[in-house]
């Protein structure tokens, strides 16, 4: 049997994790306090609601860091030694999570562990985890799942925009000067997860409405009438995400849709108001 392990930066909904028997290892959330930095386990020691409150009100922005090798090893050791364990991590170009998972192999020598760099984050990598877990439940071999993962990755395209450039600027994703100009002129960035594992700004559009229209246009140009599984990912803008979902369904051949609020790890990067699509073509 193949068991799937992932990290919480993939923004998988809890009900999907439970249904697909996925093991999730929490990332660390680092919150500035008067006594210094205090670290919490994502979703375990600090809720999404509490994190967003800190993100919105704190003068100093919280940061995130990858799970430790010891965390991965503990999750692995809880699984049967006779199982093949496939650990799928967010992009090594964005996080040290892949390196932590690789280091965990030596800490769990009795287990057979394979680590896969999904070269994405949120549901850009999440679709790879979902497909792998579905195949595992159907009895697929590790070799068959590993052969499928590059296909899923190559057929997944993710675009998103942000309400403000403040958080991207703080993360180093865009220069601070660009962030200031963008906020002044109501310019919204269009960002894309690239297949090399990076996030790149690919356009700037005036206004929120036009930025969302730009994403839909790009998605239709890529997918046309191909059947797709879609995640509408958002950070604290659920009503707008639902409206965006309805517009998206009119433009694409959707066979499945998940409306997902991104977790703290990605919210710290993109900020409240981030909204986009992670689309996997079947």
Account of the protein in words:
This protein is an alpha/beta fold. Helices cover 42% and strands 29% of the residues. The protein has a six-stranded mixed beta sheet with strand order 10-9-8-13-11-12, with helices on both faces. A four-stranded parallel beta sheet has the order 2-1-6-7, with helices on both faces. The chain has a three-stranded antiparallel beta sheet with strand order 4-3-5. α10 (238-251) links the parallel β11 and β12 (253-261). The longest helix has 16 residues, at 122-137. The radius of gyration is 19 Å and the shape is globular.
Briefly summarize what is shown.
By secondary structure, the protein is an alpha/beta fold. The protein has helices at residues 14-19, 48-57, 69-77, 97-107, 122-137, 142-154, 166-171, 176-185, 208-223, 238-251, 264-270; strands spanning 2-7, 23-25, 28-33, 36-41, 63-65, 84-89, 112-117, 156-161, 187-193, 199-206, 227-234, 253-261, 275-281. It folds into two domains: 2-27 and 66-153, Rossmann fold (3-Layer(aba) Sandwich); 156-281, Hypothetical Protein Tm841, Chain: A,domain 3 (2-Layer Sandwich), CATH 3.30.1180.
């Amino acid at each position: 049997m193949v068991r799937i392990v992932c990290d919480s930066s993939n923004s998988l909904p809890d009900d999907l994790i439970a249904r697909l028997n996925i093991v999730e290892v929490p990332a660390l959330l680092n919150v500035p306090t008067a006594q210094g930095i205090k670290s919490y386990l994502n979703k375990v020691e600090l809720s999404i609601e509490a994190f967003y409150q800190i993100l919105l009100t704190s003068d100093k922005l919280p940061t995130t860091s990858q799970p430790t090798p010891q965390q991965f090893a503990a999750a692995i050791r809880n699984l049967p030694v006779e199982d093949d364990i496939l650990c799928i991590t967010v992009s090594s170009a964005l996080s040290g999570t892949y390196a932590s998972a690789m280091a965990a192999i030596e800490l769990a020598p009795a287990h057979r562990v394979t680590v896969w760099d999904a070269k994405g984050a949120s549901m850009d990598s999440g679709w790879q985890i979902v497909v792998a877990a579905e195949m595992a439940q159907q009895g697929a071999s590790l070799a068959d799942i590993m052969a499928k993962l590059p296909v899923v990755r190559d057929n997944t395209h993710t675009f998103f925009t942000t309400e403000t450039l403040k958080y991207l600027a703080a993360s180093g994703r865009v220069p601070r000067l660009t962030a200031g100009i963008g906020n002044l002129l109501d310019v919204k960035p269009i960002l894309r997860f690239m297949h090399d594992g990076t996030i790149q700004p690919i356009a700037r559009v005036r206004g929120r409405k036009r930025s969302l229209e730009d994403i839909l246009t790009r998605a239709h140009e890529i997918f046309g009438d191909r059947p797709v599984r879609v995640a509408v990912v958002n950070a604290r803008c659920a009503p707008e995400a639902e409206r965006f979902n309805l517009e998206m369904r009119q433009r694409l051949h959707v066979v499945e849709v998940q409306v997902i609020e991104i977790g703290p790890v990605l919210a710290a990067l993109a900020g409240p108001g981030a909204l986009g699509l992670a689309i996997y073509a079947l």
